[in-house]
Task: inverse folding
């Protein structure tokens, strides 16, 4: 990204506003600031998309009712910031202003950790000796299939995301592992109360996500087999 | 379940075929065999459903193109087994015959482990100090929301599933944890090749699940925002 930006630098007029749509913001902000010292750089991240990448994966409503996080550096020109915000709002997005470090922490838990876990469990399921891959596929409607969508995301992009946001991802992963170990212990010792209490408190978030319009409350998100 | 079956035992004619639809099969098979010594007991498990429980959560196509696993004990009467298979086929399901121990291992990876992980990550995300629950909800379209559906499942049922299938769940969890630790190390040391190779091999399973009709290939399973 730094190289591409340096190449573009000589052809950019000084009044040009430069932005990006990457998944991590601190590392990209630093690279772009060095590569484009004469331009206003305002990183942004539209939290939208599917497991597919590239121009062909777009669709008209891609950004509608999704959040775009804009991370302006200190002392960003207010007129330029307003222009970028209006650009994203014109595409249908809601815009939130945030500093880049906080963005990277928030996305570590709402996006990067979920992808890492999904990639892991799909790999674990493929490597079993006693359960065939064909069985994993046939009985995936029991829950496994929900993880496979994001585990089909672009491997190059995700390798780069984990390395660019390493510290925040490792912090979130450490917390996840502690929590998983506590539930593992509860299963091993038969601690019914710990299991029930944990499972009972995770329902509210699902309801809020649907109320906020970030997911679909039809059974299985309206997967087509229910409409058949 | 054993108690309910014992109560029913006195009112059941000896020719009655008894089955169930629970998520674990070894423990239920043992309980039912003790509670109903005079009846033919053939456990079954339709791998279908949503995060909602109870009669109101049903819909006409619930079992269509889903697999129902039937786990007949040794020496099960073939006519009775055929009757049960035909019952499930009449509801639209495909039927697979399997022994109860293998069922419990297969479901530990395709259903129980995914639920445990989903419950864990939703709990982890709710407990952060630096990221608010409102932020987790707003930016959930980055991947997190895919986990929240199954983490909204019935807590009583899932407490019982993990305890009834404890050994197989702990075995699968151990493998998952090893695999996650390997990826964590790759992130920490910046091992690009290990990350890329792992992420590249998990796409094929997704394609197979869609080809087998166990999921929907529309973007985001056809979540309604794409149809807007």
Result:
């Amino acid at each position: 990204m730094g190289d591409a930006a340096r190449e573009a630098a000589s052809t950019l007029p000084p009044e040009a506003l430069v932005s990006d749509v990457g998944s991590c913001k601190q590392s990209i902000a630093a690279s772009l600031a060095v590569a484009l010292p004469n331009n206003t750089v305002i990183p942004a991240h539209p939290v939208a998309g599917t497991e597919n990448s590239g121009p062909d994966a777009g669709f008209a409503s891609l950004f509608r009712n999704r959040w775009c996080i804009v991370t302006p550096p200190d002392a960003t020109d207010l007129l330029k910031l307003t222009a970028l915000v209006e650009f994203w709002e014109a595409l249908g997005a809601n815009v939130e202003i945030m500093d880049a470090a906080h963005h990277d922490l928030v996305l570590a838990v709402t996006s990067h950790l979920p992808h890492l876990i999904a990639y892991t469990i799909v790999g674990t399921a493929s490597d079993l000796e006693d359960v065939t891959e064909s069985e994993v596929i046939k009985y995936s409607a029991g829950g496994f299939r929900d993880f496979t969508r994001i585990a089909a995301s672009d491997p190059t992009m995700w390798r780069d995301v984990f390395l660019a946001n390493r510290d925040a991802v490792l912090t979130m992963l450490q917390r996840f592992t502690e929590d998983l170990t506590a539930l593992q212990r509860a299963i091993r010792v038969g601690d019914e109360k710990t299991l029930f209490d944990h499972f009972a408190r995770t329902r509210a978030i699902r309801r809020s996500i649907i109320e906020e319009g970030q997911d679909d409350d039809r059974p299985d998100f309206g997967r087509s087999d229910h409409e058949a």
